[in-house]
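Input/output pair, single chain:
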Amino acid sequence: MLCHGWPEHAFSWRHQMPALAAAGYHVIVPNQRGYGNSSRPTDVTDYDITHLSGDLVALLDHYGYADATFVGHDWGAAVVWGLTLLHPKRVNTVINLSLPYLERGDRPWIEAMEEMLGGDFYFVHFNRQPGVADAVFEENTFQFLRNLYRRDVPLTAPQPGNAMINLARRKTPPGEPIMSDSELAVFVSAFEATGFTGSVNWYRNLDRNWHLLADVDPIIRQPTLMIYGDRDTVARSQRLTDFVPNADVVSLDCGHWIQQERPDETNQVILAWLDQRDPA
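Output:
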């Protein structure tokens, strides 16, 4: 089961679906809660890790599987980590891209981020100023997504304000596009139809998730493949194997949008690793 990130869509796995299917896998690729034609409840708490992981378990039940290999990118990876903690018997193996295991720590995540990174950091801003960023994204949907889905973006000094809002308002895109205009149009039309609030509500449950995971065994014991992009701005975990002892780590020469920037390499790494797990 392939789990997309933010602000993405099942279409972000378009390069992986045929490769995995050709290798004999039944590939399930949902638009998750808040995205596309999936349900978009209005209550913020309906997007916590209990609900998001419960949706994936329900898909397993629907298709009659006891467990599956779960593949996540970005926020999808966060959900796969949480799913594996909450429903370990339903997860056979884990493959996550970009976002490593997030240690729970002794303080709620948004609270800690606010102290370290300030109120303009977009995770914090989404929580402390609900609705503000959503409206900006919806007013600039094409521009925001065009500016976001880029590679080879030059490093620049941080600017005042919410970086995502700044990006949505930027007239000239940075770097180079990672997809064609027709591919970008799929994402744009999806978010023009749904807006962004449902997807941003995932961020608004980070502290709630911190509390929900309080009594859960924090160790992930399933065989795990962690794929990083060498130029991704998401920080790598320095203690991944403390919490995921059976993790293999691979790095690809790309930025954040790993499976879309380096589709062939991503497919090769995933299929080779899966074949090692189950050579039959």
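The chain has a mean pLDDT of 96. The CA atoms of residues 36 and 194 lie 7 Å apart.
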